[in-house]
Specification:
The chain contains 10 helices and 10 strands. By secondary structure, it is of the alpha/beta class. The chain has one domain: Alkaline Phosphatase, subunit A (3-Layer(aba) Sandwich).
Length: 273
């Protein structure tokens, strides 16, 4: 009994230390680029020295939509195309609200008013995963959590970022229609000053990732930045959107969606000790 008690105490202590690594998460998603090409881009490459790079991170599926859904719901729900879909399922937003935490999505060129159309200018609904869930679509208060991306810079400056946020560049800035070299330049122009701001929150974890690669292996660039991340750390573990989701759930104290997240490994090898 004494050994069991000591083991449980150690586990509890370990989890409490781990959970202290971050209190807020910001996910920035780029498009359709294989790992080997993304890592060659100047700004993406420069962040490797300051963040933690995953060298064996695989997206879930082809094409885009299923990957975005997997990021927040722990499964692709067997989605095989990019057609608009309406899912009566739970997602990370539900977990957050269950424990009185909040979420927000900053989507470039989003027209607002719970727009459910496929596209609007350079905005694409398929890249904003919360818009695929009925419990968001039919709830005006939840739809209001999805805003045009300009609000991000105001929220950051005024220290009003939510517990979980996503920044979704438009079809040009994410590299989808223009190529990742353009995405890299846009990323540096818009986020270099954010990531290196003297006001960057110490408890903010920034996740920079892509929706999918361009080959069957589906290997993508994914990097963690901020929030007690060990600069220059690299992980060769087999990671994916489910290990990321499990890590958010654990770090923010959210519980599980009981999908692929429930048995996914928590990312615990890239933090400062």
């Amino acid at each position: 009994m004494k050994n069991i008690f000591l083991t449980l105490t150690f586990l509890s202590l370990s989890q409490s230390i781990y959970a202290a690594n971050f209190n807020k998460v910001l996910v920035i998603v780029f498009e359709n680029t294989e790992y080997s090409k993304a890592i060659q881009q100047p700004f993406f490459s420069s962040l490797v020295k300051e963040g933690a790079l995953f060298t064996n991170f695989k997206a879930a599926i082809h094409p885009s939509l299923g990957n975005y859904i997997a990021m927040i719901a722990g499964t692709t729900f067997n989605i095989v195309n990019d057609k608009p879909i309406d899912l009566n399922e739970r997602h990370i937003g539900d977990l957050l609200e269950d424990v009185k935490k909040d979420w927000k999505v900053y989507a470039e060129d989003y027209p607002g008013n719970c727009f459910l159309g496929k596209t609007s200018g350079d905005y694409a609904r398929k890249h904003v995963p919360f818009m695929s869930f009925v419990n968001v679509q039919k709830n005006p208060a939840r739809c209001a959590k999805i805003v045009e991306a300009k609000e991000f810079f105001t929220d950051f400056s005024s220290s009003k970022l939510k517990d979980f946020s996503m920044y979704i560049p438009n079809l040009k800035n994410d590299g989808h229609d223009t190529g990742i070299a353009i995405g890299d330049k846009w990323f540096k122009k818009n986020f270099d000053s954010i990531l290196h701001s003297p006001n960057f929150p110490k408890d903010l974890l920034v996740v920079v990732t892509f929706d999918e690669g361009t080959t069957p292996t589906n290997q993508i660039y994914t990097l963690l930045f901020g929030a007690n991340i060990k600069p220059g750390a690299q992980s060769a573990r087999a990671n994916n959107f489910y290990t990321l989701l499990r890590t958010y759930e654990d770090g923010l104290g959210l519980g599980s969606l009981n999908k692929n997240d429930v048995n996914a490994q928590i990312i615990d090898d890239v933090w400062k000790k």
